[in-house]
Amino acid sequence: MFYLDKKALQDTPNNKPAGKGFNWTGEFAKRQKQAKYPALKHYYAQGIISADTPIAEAPLVALDFETTGLNPKTDSIVSIGLVAMTVKRIRCQEAQHWIIKPDTELKTKSVVIHGITHSDVADAPSFNRVLDELLQHLQGKVVVAHHKDIEVRFLNSALKHYIGEEIVFPCIDTMALEARFSRTIKRTFLRSLLGQKTPSIRLTDCRSRYRLPYYRQHNALTDALACAELLQAQVASHYPDDNAPISAIWS
User: Which UniProt keywords are present, listed alphabetically (predicted)?
Assistant: First the structure.
């Protein structure tokens, strides 16, 4: 998992934050009519849960990418990890991990971070070879990611490159949730005088606040699992009422 730099974040993503009142059901119906790529059209045809679905009943899938760099315009996906889940259960048997032959140069700096080497990708499939299966894993589910702009931007960049289309979907961003939960303890002038820092909302630091175990970072499957567990801990701590609607945490 990388974190996008400020320059990359200046570009507005096509999968814009939707807000609580956004009609995802209607959006999927509209997109299903417009989509040309068969697997993408089928993805939209499966629909999405309604906004008032209780969080505890929502089908979810945690998603994480490793990439060749930070900029989706000049870098590309090198591995994909996903884990099917609910806030009560993680379905490890349905987890999936792909090493992808990147469309751009595999840089030394990124190899040092995620450990995926040129020999690892030499015989790996290209993104378009796994696209249909990826969409099957996503269909009908709400995506969970930590710092969702990475997944949204890189996924749409790859889709645009291979099929000339993009995708939209509701997403739960565990980093954004943690920022929301941490508002009451964010840095103030008094905290500054006391030398106290703003709590970090990186994945590993968020997990430590919920006393979740440390996992080695920058493996797409492990990071997807780490994100899934973090969401479960966040919901258990901040949304103990199982009847809270999924719209309370998706965007």
Answer: Exonuclease, Hydrolase, Nuclease
In terms of Cβ atoms closer than 10 Å to its own Cβ (0-12, 13-18, 19+), residue 155 is buried
pTM above 0.85, yes or no: yes
54: three-class secondary structure by DSSP: strand
Contact 43, 135 (CB under 8 A): yes
Write out the chain's pLDDT in tens, 251 residues: 655 454 444 443 444 545 567 999 999 999 999 999 999 999 999 999 999 999 999 999 999 999 999 999 999 999 999 999 999 999 999 999 999 999 999 988 899 899 999 999 999 999 999 999 999 999 999 999 999 999 999 999 999 999 999 999 999 999 999 999 886 555 555 555 666 667 789 999 999 999 999 999 999 999 999 999 999 999 999 998 878 999 999 99
Pick the CATH number of 22-248 from 3.30.1490.190, 3.30.1490.20, 3.30.420.10, 3.30.720.120: 3.30.420.10
Type of residue at 135: L
User: Residue 69 belongs to what H/E stretch?
Assistant: none
Quick one: residue 140, left, alpha or beta (phi over 0 = left, psi -120 to 50 = alpha)?
left
Contact 240, 105 (CB under 8 A): no
- Residues with Cβ < 8 Å from 240, sequence gap 6 or more? none
Domain ranges of the chain: 22-248
